[in-house]
Amino acid sequence: MNRIYWLKNVRLECGYRKENERVTGTITGLFHLLMEDGRITKIVKDGDAIRDDLPVEDAKGLLALPSFIEKHVHLDKTLMGDVWRACTPSSSVIERFENEKRVLPSIATSTCKRAESLLEILLASGSAHIRTHVDIYPEAGLQNLEQVQQALAGYSNRLSSEIVAFAQHGLLRSGSVKLVREALRNGAGIVGAVDPATVDNNIEASLVQLMDLAVEANADVDLHLHDPGHLGTFTMKRLAALTKQAGWEGRVALSHAFGIGDVSREEAYELADILREAGISIVTSVPINRQMPPVDLLHERGVEVSVGNDNIFDVWSPLGNGDILERAGRLAERFKWIDEVSLSRTLGYITGGKTPLDDKGNQVWPKVGDAGSLVLIDASCSAEAVARRSERKAVIYKGNLVSGSLYKQKQSIER
Amino acid sequence: MNEAYWLTNVTLESGFVFENERIDRTKTATYNMYIKNGIIKDLQLASTMPLKTDGPVHDAGKLLALPPFKEMHNHLDKTYLGLPWKSCTPVPNLIERLKLEAKELAELAETGQLRAERMLQLLLSGGATHVRTHVNIDPYIGTKNLEEIQRALYRFKGKMTYEIVAFPQHGLLRTNSKGLMRQAMKEGASLVGGLDPGGVDNNIEASLYEMVDLAVEFDADIDIHIHDPGHLGLYTIKKLASLIDEAGWKNRAAISHAFALGDVSIGESNELASELSNLGIAIMSTVPINRVMPPIDSLHEKGVHVALGCDGFYDSWSPFGTGDMLEKAGRLAERYNWKDEYALSQSLQFITGGVKTLDHEGNRLWPKVGNDASMVFVDASCAAEAIARRSTRAAVMVDGNLVYGGLDRESALKSN
User: Which of A85, B11, B67, B248 is the most exposed, fewest CB within 10 Å of its CB?
Assistant: First the structure.
């Protein structure tokens, strides 16, 4: 695409429509966006004349939303692009580990190839930023990291990414500290670990080791905490204490965090305050087969929450389709967010908090100077997009069309 | 399509591959199928019997055939499909929701046929060829919705079969709707519906009695929506069971939602499950994710017939829902951690009216010579994959006729 062009006839949200003080809908209008060097440098209302002869692309009235963020995916695990296989039942997470170690190397297609297949799907759903975990353990060494890096390199002009060096088999249990350190020196920007109790069997030592690695490499943290009930909440409290001790506020994420959903509402409120003060965010895949963290409560208390797909067709789950907007819809369904404002606000969980309107209905995105990264979607507003899982027609990343197309109607573009 | 023809290159499940006595994957084979007057008259393994015919031939391009799906709980009269986007208004309870719905019933009734047709097309494109729809019978619009829905269903004649439940959404007793219900039954509704005898009608015994009475009067089956939770719902279900027994209405009643079965202890729900099974009372579930749901796994194990539905969706109750029964089955599998080949493959029966492709030993149960030539063609290697991966529906066939999509894999997938 051109370095500079007009994206015309883009539908943007302008405010909420109110009847008797209650929001009943979203007001939108058509605008033309000037895309320049990957940024939006001018926004003019439809009807205002464009006085230049720059190239023009036509969004034909499609709604623009800020591009989505896939906050939890395992590019190294997916079977996408390979033949169908169901999961083998296993009695414990440890058995699942062993099974995965056995199966993945036996698959004909390469990790890189499968990661690419999944990236294509994620991108088509509107995700232009991806946080991927890559398993680091002795048997695999840094292979997963290298393969995923190779896949991501091919996508570097189409999406941004961050890689978590993830000690899936236990930082302590599998003796992977050295390897994780090496991964952090070789391009992984985040350090990840799993269940300090159930997997590592030593909560304190596991957490201290994790934070040590983070501080040493100046890396963020993403801990996958499935440990349930009070075992989980105890671990969270210890992580919060260690986070503050290290001055790592704003740099730590807890994935899953099932424990908060298991304890009482009062305990969850207390924990939410602790997490907020330690600047720890929560990443959830919105599971439906067990209790999940009370996202409404966490949000109310100012804890940052985001959504990720997690396992997509791998040895852990045969399900999952990589559509992050579908996950947002599931989140809304789960918490009965069915009115215009609640649905509209749900978008923030898959955009890093970025929404076209703020909670009062003021237009806050896009602004001149914002990155030209957006999803063009066949919907009348964010609320509809979330509830109806509307069709993604095109994804634009830093001004470039990276998925879908703008010309599906086969009409000529006026120049 | 033609009255008689060969449908070639149809992939059918043919067995399981066992590893250490565990079902590891599904075997398939390619068949040629002779279809005459809407019936499968012959099935030949493509590899062993080269097709010799002068008659018409259609190529299924190795797409997998599955039994067609049944959408067993819908409200064709309620959906907003076809209208501009509209979100919902949150309410504190069911009675408030009913009041809100009442306000827009008259306005919506004007577009009933159009909205219902949009829903039917959506269901069909997902592979459903049968729909059980509830239709509001209430004092606000009388039987107006019934007429609109009948018109829409008529337009899908030959594509979808249906059952219409006369549904006293605003309470059989609460809105004194027995007269209207009678009228609806005379005008073409085939089942008698009911709703929360406790929470809505405020008189469990009288409400249940009147409903069963209507069913007997019209020799009709029953589908009652019981959202009433915990022991209230449990008591209601028990009471219903005894009335069903008294009336001799075995195998003729269904309970939709039945949330209570998920609220009480597993001991209590198991006890009731045996009774439901003996009386042939089915459970219809939408697989809700925002509250406890009935234990479908143990109900099924106890022999209770369980079927899934989308419920009314994209209406004044809920903005969500896709009408895709295969997605619904996938959600059920996800909810119960059914992730191995056999468990996934078995979850299909909850959307096919109990039809399974293979039994536990891997013997083929469907399709058989003599079956209706009604099937869904899916771009998948087996039923387990279709459910887990929500595979693309390429075509839907009813009684030998293509009613959605196309058999040419490339063009079919593109047209979606």
Answer: B248
The domain covering A4-67+354-404 belongs, at the CATH homologous superfamily level, to: Urease, subunit C, domain 1 (2.30.40.10)
For residue B289, which residues of chain A lie inside 8 Å, CB to CB? 288, 330, 333-334
Top residue of B26, B320, B416 to mutate, by most chain A CBs within 10 Å, is B320
Contact predicate B339/A319, CB 8 Å: yes
Residue B51: count of CB within 10 angstroms of its CB: 12
pLDDT bracket for residue B48 (50, 70, 90) = confident
Backbone angles phi, psi at B193, to 5 degrees: -105, 165
Q: Is A321 on the interface with B (CB under 8 A)?
A: yes
In chain A, which residues have their Cβ closer than 8 Å to the Cβ of B314?
Answer: 387-388
Contact: A332, B320; criterion CB under 8 Å = yes
* pLDDT tens track for B316-339: 999 999 999 999 999 999 999 999
Give the residue among B335, B241, B242 at the shortest CA–CA distance from B291: B335
- Domain count of the fold of chain B: 2
Reported as a pLDDT band with limits 50, 70 and 90, residue B410 is: low
**Reported ipTM:** 0.93
**Residue B159 shares a structural domain with residue B19:** no
B145 lies in the same domain as B279: yes
User: Which CATH number covers residue B83?
Assistant: 3.20.20.140
Interface of A with B in 242-281 (CB under 8 A): none
Identify the pLDDT of residue B50.
75
Residues of A in contact with B380 (CB under 8 A): 84
What is the spatial distance between Cα B309 and Cα A345, in angstroms, rounded to a whole number? 29
> Is B243 inside any structural domain?
yes
The full DSSP string for B229-259 is -HHHHHHHHHHHHHHHHHHT-TT-EEEEE-T
How is domain A70-319 classified at the CATH fold level? TIM Barrel (3.20.20)
